[in-house]
Amino acid sequence: MRIASRTTDFGITASDWFDVGGGESGWIAPSPKDSEIIFAGSYGGLITRYDHHTGQMRDINPYPDNPMGWGADALKYRFQWNFPLVFSPHDNRTLYTGANVLFKSTNEGQSWEVISPDLTRDDKSKQGASGGPITKDNTSIEYYCTIFTVMESPVQAGTIWTGSDDGLVYLTRDGGKNWSNVSPPKEIMPEWIQSQFP
Question: How many C-beta atoms lie closer than 10 Å to residue 113's C-beta?
Answer without folding.
Answer: 11
